[in-house]
């Protein structure tokens, strides 16, 4: 705004909640709106207008009544917000005689009255704000411009600034709100007069709508402009995130919804604002509501945002180059689907922007389709018509349709098209087997800790145990991890004796660690092994790991009894006599059928020294090993023959297998059972 203004309208709002610097942080409704016109040309002020607003929730605390003087009768007889805004417009039109050349702008002391109160409440109540509420002057910033050598004015209130400018205190208008609006007008008159002669030329702007766009991975992003919103409904879009932060300016393409490992939304979003000031205002909306859910807002970094929204693909950049497009995600497409079939699926009621160029198929690095695609539409109406085709059939498959975002396109394409820098090596044919982790014993010389904070480390555990730390065996602290490799909240400690384990469980049970109480139980090494190898401890006793569940052979695989091995004299001469006289017993015919291809042992072991916690070394994480029961047992087909020569050959083969077992078992190789 370069042209000079004719009028400023000082504005002040009052809610039933907090005031001052915390105004709008508690999501309370607006109940009082005050304004006063300031004539910049003639340096005069108009009448103070004071209008009550009827809230949806008629609740008024005694503290609010004492501070503001507002009563329940005032709110009951008031008009709703939409009617008050219309009254505001009519009042300005009559008082200013608004014509073609008349210009005015709002002015508030700080950002909260408009950004944190008016815009969020109007959005929640589906009330359209007049155009004049999308630009305003922040009196604090204007004071800093005309008084650059003054102290930090952001930490001062109106009374302090009035004293700084040597303004007289008007004792007649001491009502809450009226005194503030009068002081605001007096400060405006002071800075437009001698010796300041300040001109209001550059107002604050509020975005009308959120603009979509792309973000490059090479872009430098300020960490002080990013927040993480957690707890979003799974069906929410970037527009819903922008509505939640209405009144604050989100950067172009700055709302990125996060996806989980399955490519579905996990209820989190990273939001990038235009500057740090708007980020700080966004943090004040922590635990504000989106529908019936409260949203948590935390600080985040630019690196976090780039991981979600950044991309380098030229194909994606071309697809997202058209601004203000509505994107719809298709899931469950046939692998043979073509662009023509997709265009036919949507039909003429929802034309795709650019025809074939408005469709982006998601593919693996080798070019195979994943069954996902993104489609862009020119307007909201076309997108809504397209979403009505949710679960319609394309060929022999039903198609799922979801509203999507530019950041989601980047995430999905990055996940499917990225190639790992280090290729994954295949598993060895005969793996190395770990030594027994803990000797199995029924002595209850261990303790189990349950309910640990997920961020707890070895130092926290040792500090929790206190004087019992000296009773821990070397290498005796074991933290249990879940299948995703994250802490499960459990840990096992090997103590030097059963007495010390019992005393530790009695003294440390339900002590607190980082605001959480931790349960401590006495247990044995055998119980600990069950958990460390994938089992569980519950009230019904021990539940073994899934790989340890025995399963009898299927009925189609008939077993035969072990026969006496008979070989020829020539074959017997090849082996030592003791081996032939005392062969190793064969394994039973019961087989183990694992539930998955590989078992990841869900434990990590830490090796504390006997020194103080401050002298501990970095914890060592044991790598996962596949269990021997995960390798299918070998089975020798029984030949249907009755020839003595053939039966003798079978016996020789069986004896050779037996000798291999005797020779390989001492070397640590897995024992192979046969049927």
From TrEMBL:
Pfam families: RNase_T, RRM_1. GO terms for biological process: mRNA processing; RNA splicing. It is found in: Nucleus. Belongs to the ESRP family. This is RRM domain-containing protein. Residues 326-406 form the RRM domain. GO terms for molecular function: RNA binding. It comes from the Eukaryota. Signal peptide: none annotated. The keyword Cytoplasm does not apply. GO terms for cellular component: nucleus. Keywords: mRNA processing, mRNA splicing, Nucleus, Repeat, RNA-binding. PROSITE patterns: RRM (PS50102). The keyword Repeat applies.
